[in-house]
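Reply to dn_fold:

You asked what the input looked like. This is it:
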Amino acid sequence: MGRRGRIRRYYERRLLTRRQHFAVLDWADAASQQARFQVLADNVPLAGKSLLDVGCGLGDLWAFLKSRSIPTAYLGVDLVEKMAASAARLHPDGEFLCADVFADHAFDQRRFDVVFASGAFNLDLGNNMEFLPVALERLLSLAREFLVFNLLHQRAPRKYEHCAYYDPGQVLSLLEPMPCQARLIDDYLPNDFTVICRK
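and this is what came back:
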């Protein structure tokens, strides 16, 4: 089973349970999910910008932005059709689409001021470090100003077999040849870090 099939199978099963949003997406709790969103809001000018939310899940970033009155031209994209459909149902005022931005040619001509990927690389697919530079190049090509993404930190005190953990230094080295200036933020959660890439 390929990347897309494994991701769909994993998250579709979680959607069938009566979990809260953060738990469907496999975050530890709502506060940690909000902390990741807050890093984005605190470090990137979002007001009036177009924003692509890659792996949007149930649309929680859209809800976060609205709760803080941050106006954006938001598009949430998720590989899992049932996830994108649930997000659209929960947030009828948002724009959500089922697509694979890494393979869907419909995105070839589209650009967004900010591209955000929260948790999109957390599931261990067996080749995460091989796929990550390819994925980051693609996401950078979609961003006019910023690419922001978070990953699980290798220093996490508790690790799960189904998750992928990353060395921030190694991730920054992957970005060195790419057309951006990368900044690491790793002081908001013990098991997480964010990279902000400014073009």
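The radius of gyration is 16 Å.
Hope that clears it up.
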